[in-house]
Amino acid sequence: MAASIASICRYASRRGCCSLLGRVNICLTLKSKFHCSSSAHSGLLLSLHKRGILKDSFPENAAQDQLARLLQSGAQTVYCGFDPTADSLHVGNLLAVIGLLHFRSVGHHVIAVLGGATAQIGDPSGKSSERERLSADVAEANTHSIRESVHRIFTNHELHFHDSSRPLGTVTVLNNLSWYKNRDVVGFLSEAGRHFRMGTMLSRHSVQSRLKSAEGMSLTEFTYQVFQAYDFYHLNQVYGCKIQLGGTDQLGNLMSGHEYIHKVSGEEVYGLTIPLVTSTVGDKLGKTAGNAVWLNRDKTSPFELYQFFLRQPDASVEGYLKLFTFLPLAEVEKLMEQQREDPSKRLAHKRLAAEVTKLVHGKEGLESAKRCTNALYNSSVQALEEMSDEELKELFREAPFHELLLEPGTTVIDASRKVSAIPEGPRGYQMVSDGAVWINHKRTDNPEQVLIPKLHILSNGLTLLRVGKRNFYIIKWLSL
Questions:
Q1: Is 22 left (phi over 0), alpha (psi -120 to 50) or beta?
Q2: Fewer CB in 10 Å around end: N or C, the chain?
Q3: Could you give the CA distance from residue 415 to residue 396 in angstroms, rounded to a whole number?
Q4: Residues 6+ apart with CB under 8 A from 295
Q5: Closest CA to 227 of 112, 111, 118
């Protein structure tokens, strides 16, 4: 059975605690003897529990002493897997990456495994029907894109969030296709398959729920837990990896890995689960639900990511600050006190949005998000002038982008008609006269007004034209 991290911490609390410079650290008991270390390794599990990042552990008894002792003994190797079923990770995956970052920040080595092989099989966990088959070429392209994203997030963490006085663990990004591509199915089943028992595999929750469904479960999906278990075994043998992180829906797969390794090598390994991130109505945030907020800029811009966290309900913001940022818990509490004193300032929301955007897209991405916010919601002409073509296209994703030759004497009505923002003829002319057209956040009601540089045409050669409340058009002017 898996043990709740909360129960482990309650167990530790009952056995005792030690104080250092006024700060109380709950120490995990080790075989009935109380050990406390000033090392960052020793308090990691408790810290992650307090932040809400860790939910359950496996196996139960080992989590109360052996795992804590293992982490205190020195740098360990921890891994988490990500199947490239899309060309980007999403916010639902971000918490797993953050879990790896926490381990790395105290000196443990981390491995991100991209499932170029397992993505072609399909994980049934949490799914009501079988995934659409993914070709090898698509899986390879997705893996390449996600690899770049993972490296970017780890780099941003090191640059902007890590205390340089503390040594970091190593980061390794692997594709599990590399250890399957030369294996034949007979050899693999002969080696690995004999160590799995059908009764145990059938008892997994992910399998049971699918077997009871109208569609049932394919043999391909049924074997997924075998491949994930073998991944853990391979990493254990080659990299000395003893800890796997996964979402709570991965607990069955974590158990399979533990059991397989124990049978084959006798090594003791451990599984830790992290909670699934859900929307305000309880839906898992992921691509299947159709509500994914992506971590790649070409799918979700820094502005859109910033706004997603800025718009979180008040009830979620404290929990999200603990989960998605690296702010000390004391600072989170101070932020929440300030928020309660003056909710209208939304200080906690803004800090949450800024911290996550900087982690995912770096300092430049955060600055871009703020420029876009000022341009759209604060009607800042200066922000518009500072925006690049890419930022404008991101901010106004649905807005047509036109490149037009700037001829002498071009008027407001000329520009509006060239981008088809208004109808031809008297009706379009009347719309401008009635003030329905805005240029660079300023209403214009003179159709014959000649476009003036720095007023209608910004210093970056752009014009933002709006008709009504939501119909935007972006014009990039080319000089004669």
A1: left
A2: C
A3: 18
A4: 88, 89, 90, 91, 93, 94, 149, 153, 305, 360
A5: 118
